[in-house]
Design a protein that fits this description.
Distance between the termini: 63 Å
Radius of gyration: 26 Å
């Protein structure tokens, strides 16, 4: 009996239920080799015996806290200057002490989204050269375990082996596991700011925006009703079907039936059937992707840690069939809920605009592709939301792969945004902000068979066409039929003339609007122009009902 109780207590502790154990404990976001945010109070929290006093010290600063009736405590260390010298974070309560070693003070950023953020340095372009060149022990990263949950979690569990859940350094032995976009972002920040940089990687491939938003925020959205209906149906079937035991029985039965079909096909010399049962589909729906699932299981265990800002690279999975419909609501909600989770109404969020994939087809298919909706929503969200940025990435995709391997330009453009807008860095020898945006569309006028496109003055200096070749321009007349167009930069006026002999009287102009965009328009800093369209015509994605109209 005693052994059973000890085992139960250990399991509860491993499950992150701190209130049922008196042991002094920190959440696992605090670990050896971590980086904490400079120049801001640093949130520290954890669990101890109910009512106990807790002392926390780091770098000469010391604060105290008192555990509440459930054993939870929190405090804030005073702001510290950047330091490359590893220090100890020491937490004591009574006779208990927890020590976190080799803590640096610098800049700390979240890296969220889906697979193109999760994509590691190991799989990126020039990995064969970059990994062995990564001698940056003061750039550190934490890969948060991928766990979905039906309610907000207060901690994550560290697997018994591997790099996940443990702070790592960007050195040749460990750098390959770092998010590639985050790595190049951090590298540029460190080289310019000359401080340690930490990354907390919360990305998860194949996720839609709504899984990164709280259920509380999502519930009132009519567009989310079908997603909740599907989730609740799955939960009911899970409960009614015997939960874990029933799931295993169904999996075993379905697998056996599939295997019989496979054997019969082989005996008949036919192709083996597809659709082999996947064990994940027979598990608790709350542990799989669902509205709020990753917000609960991945983001909340690291909130409200003090961070400087967040990068968010997601949208591909909102680019299939009907999945674009929630995106105009859920993408802004990601920003709002992350700011709430980290208790910072002005948390800087750098959005990365999705590239494209598949091949270009008929003009109507390309112009109505889901990716155009997602990129436009990302652009409009940026324009409407203070303290956000938007990074263009379509030009970094050399083929139809949904995972472009060229992550360096994406990470470095994100760093340009952060340096300019978050850190206030000026251009070299100038009082003007560091240039970080390519040309941003402002307006279009139509006369004499041409469209004249104007751009925001602070983004179009040195406007040019790469190698003087016009790529990515389209015009349409009143018939709304699109045609590939020619283009010419108008001297120093910051404008582009666009025309096509097939459209004698154009009424609308577009640039880089396609499932797999191309484009040659850039400014003097060789930063690519953002995709744009002058019209507000409906976009009707294929394999989808209804049309998208910008709000």
């Amino acid at each position: 009996m005693r052994l059973h109780l000890l085992t139960l207590a250990a399991c509860l502790l491993l499950a992150g239920i701190g209130s049922l154990s008196a042991a002094l404990r920190l959440p696992n976001v605090f670990g050896d080799h971590m980086v904490v945010q400079r120049d801001q109070e640093v949130n520290v929290w954890g669990w101890a015996e109910a009512g106990a006093e807790v002392k926390v010290s780091l770098g000469g600063g010391e604060v105290t806290a008192k555990a509440d009736g459930e054993g939870k405590w929190s405090c804030a260390l005073p702001a510290m200057e950047a330091s490359f010298e590893g220090a100890e974070l020491v937490v004591t309560s009574g006779s208990e002490t927890v020590t976190i070693k080799d803590v640096l003070v610098g800049e700390l950023w979240l890296c969220g989204g889906q697979s193109n953020m999760e994509w590691s340095l190991r799989g990126s372009l020039e990995a064969d050269l970059e990994i062995d060149s990564a001698h940056y022990p003061a750039i550190r990263f934490l890969r948060v375990p991928k766990v979905a949950a039906g309610s907000p979690q207060d901690d994550f569990q560290v697997p018994g082996r591997g790099h996940v859940g443990r702070w790592q350094k960007c050195i040749p032995e460990q750098a390959e596991n770092c998010t590639a976009v985050g790595y190049y972002f951090a590298l540029r920040l460190q080289r310019r700011l000359r401080v340690p940089v930490g990354l907390i990687d919360t990305s998860w491939g194949g996720t839609m925006a709504q899984v990164w938003v709280s259920e509380e925020t999502l519930r009132p959205m009519p567009v989310m009703k079908s997603y909740f209906d599907d989730y609740e149906k799955a939960l009911k079937e899970w409960d009614d079907g015997g939960r874990e035991e029933g799931g295993k029985k169904r999996f075993d039965a379905d697998l056996a039936a599939w295997d019989e079909k496979r054997k019969a096909a082989e005996a008949a010399g036919e192709r083996a059937p597809g659709g082999r049962p996947n064990w994940k589909n027979y598990t608790d729906p709350s542990t799989r992707a669902h509205p709020g699932g990753m917000y609960n299981g991945v983001l909340m265990p690291v909130a409200p840690f003090t961070v400087r800002g967040a990068l968010y690279y997601q949208g591909e999975n909102n680019s299939f069939e009907e999945s674009w419909k929630p995106f105009p609501k859920t993408l802004p909600a990601v920003i709002a809920d992350w700011r709430k989770a980290f208790d910072d109404d002005e948390l800087p969020v750098g959005l990365i605009q999705i590239a494209g994939w598949s091949t270009r087809r008929a003009m109507s298919y390309d112009q109505n592709h889901h990716t155009n909706v997602v990129r436009e929503v990302q652009f409009l969200t940026w324009q409407k939301t203070p303290m956000t940025g938007l990074v263009v990435s379509f030009d970094a995709n050399s083929d139809g792969n949904i995972h472009p391997k060229a992550k360096r330009p994406v990470g470095e453009r994100a760093a340009r945004w952060a340096l300019a807008e978050v850190y206030g860095i000026k251009g070299r020898g100038s009082e003007d902000p560091l240039v970080w945006r390519g040309p941003v569309y402002e307006s279009a006028s139509f006369a004499d068979g041409k469209a004249t496109v104007s751009f925001r003055e602070d983004t179009a200096a040195g406007l040019r066409l790469d190698k003087d070749v016009a790529l990515g321009f389209y015009v349409a007349g009143e018939d709304k039929e699109w045609h590939v167009a020619e283009a010419l930069v108008k001297g120093r006026e910051g404008q582009v003339e666009v025309w096509s002999e097939a459209v004698p009287e154009p009424v609308a102009v577009r640039y880089a609007i396609s499932n797999l965009p191309i484009g040659s328009l850039m400014n003097g800093a060789e930063l690519p122009a953002y995709p744009f369209r002058s019209d507000r015509w409906p976009i009707t994605p294929h394999r989808s009902t209804g049309s998208y109209l910008p709000e």
